[in-house]
Amino acid sequence: MKAIVLQQPGHFERIEMDEPAKPAPGEALVAVHRIGICGSDTSGYLGKMPFYSYPRIPGHELGVQVLKVGPAVTNVAPGDKCSVEPYMNCGHCIACRKGASNCCATLKVLGVMTDGGLRDRFIVPARKLHPSTRLSFDQLALVETLAIGCHAVDRPALAAGENCLIIGAGPIGLSAIVFAKIAGAKVIVLDVNAHRLEFCRKVMGVHETIVASDQLDADLRRVTNGDLPDVVIDATGSNVSMSNAFGYVAPTGRLVYVGITTKDVTFKHPVFHKPEGTLLCSRNALPRDFTKIIGLIETGKIDTQPWITHRTNFEELAGVFDSYTKPETGVIKAMVEVQ
Asked: Among 318, 332, 238, which residue's Cα sits nearest to residue 6?
């Protein structure tokens, strides 16, 4: 069975693996059809992802098909097409007992802390499979990306009519845009990349976009009638951006970090104390997010068609992956066709 391993930052290796064992009770054997490339994958490739360990089989944005199920599995059956919830949680720690399986004390994310889907087949807990009879493998692989944005918008309880600034127009920022619009907020997008902001205007239907500059405070006040944003979601993973974001929130505003950095994030306390700001982090997503998103795509309320800008296959991935780390190539979402 074929697989691709990221042996160390910047170095992929094609390997042959043994076939998976027979699925145990509660497990399912799945065939991988599609893998979306996301910021965690590129950060792992660049050696900038704090939770990543090597060597590692990447891949956690997955569209799969069930081949076999173990005893006591009732939620899926052979032949089902599924999205994979890639957060392997223990089920009994304090986070899991609170219903926060996304930040389990011993969490292992597929393709990050444990081997992921960049292989023909693998075994996964059946409870992590979310089936759909209507979605394509491409769409199923996009569900996890959208789930990150869904959870990030839920964290500050974004309300209709509020001003929401989303910093960073990469895939996670774009997914936050989708759910900020669904919440009825006034969406503003900030980025250094004019091409991505154009995508936000033409494809995502965002009316207010701002290119980062020395006039940022004035630009933010102009589009918020002088109020500044009620909610700021930073999806950049840049410690500089994350540090600066403390100064963007309106009185009683909320700042959400969905991007991750290994570097120090700093701020002058009065800047955030004065508006009585609230700092929140958003990690991964919850099972209900997957169910919600599949339903929204199935009913046409989320259009995934514009998302996939680049495609490759299993054999060519190693040769083209480096280009996916460069913003100037215009990558929004790259999709790997495994079979």
From this structure: 318
Residue-range definition of the domain harbouring residue 176: 156-281
Q: Number of folded domains in the chain? A: 2
Residue from 142, 137, 117 nearest 314 by CA: 117
Q: Distances in Å between the alpha carbon of 214 and those of 45, 170, 231?
A: 32, 22, 21
Q: Judge if 163 and 294 occupy the same domain.
A: no
Q: Which residue has the tokens 């002088």?
A: 226
Domain final position from 240, 261, 281: 281
Provide the sign of the torsion angle of the four alpha carbons 130, 336, 36, 103, taken in this order.
positive
**Same-domain status, 197 and 330:** no
Pair of tokens at residue 295: 């339903």
**Contacts for 284 with CB less than 8 Å, ≥ 6 apart:** 87, 102, 103, 107, 109, 147, 148, 151
List the structure tokens of 13. Answer: 């290796």
Distance CA 181, CA 160 (A): 9
Cβ atoms < 10 Å from Cβ of 20:
18
Going by DSSP bridges, is the β-strand pair 254-257/278-281 parallel, antiparallel, or unpaired?
parallel
CA 153, distance to chain mean position in Å, is 12
Q: First vs last Cα of the chain: how many Å apart?
A: 12
pTM (predicted TM-score): 0.94
Query: DSSP assignment, residue 159?
Result: -
Per-residue CA distances from 273 to 139, 211, 258, 270 (Å): 42, 27, 21, 5
Q: What is the pLDDT of residues 97-150, one digit of tens each?
A: 999 999 999 999 999 999 999 999 999 999 999 999 999 999 999 999 999 999
Q: Is the pLDDT of residue 293 over 90?
A: yes
47: left (phi over 0), alpha (psi -120 to 50) or beta: left
Looking at the DSSP bridge assignments, the partners of residue 232 are 165, 255
Cα 297 to Cα 327: distance, rounded to the nearest angstrom: 27
